[in-house]
Design a protein that fits this description.
mainly alpha
Amino acid sequence: ADPDFARVVQFLRSGHFNRLEPQIFDPLIASITNPGDPWLTAADFTSYVAAQRRAAAAFRDVDAWSRMSILNTAASGHFSSDRTIAQYNDEIWHLDPIPSGRPGSDHLTE
């Protein structure tokens, strides 16, 4: 097992975060230390920490972070919630779209 993960679990067990409710984190601890962990928390912990370190390093470079953020947002495409709401309207509500008045927002009403 990852020694860092073991330290995190031990810190949770220590009561540091739950002095007034000593057992409140017991279900959480049991779920992440159980071999049947459906979220694979322990299995992914090392790669999660590495990804967090890379994100923190990238965030310190303001220009690179801004560029990455803009590109990520631009590449996100049409959100599924927008599509779902439009589909509900087409199939159930049959309402006329109300334009937002913002340039480039026409695609939201199609």
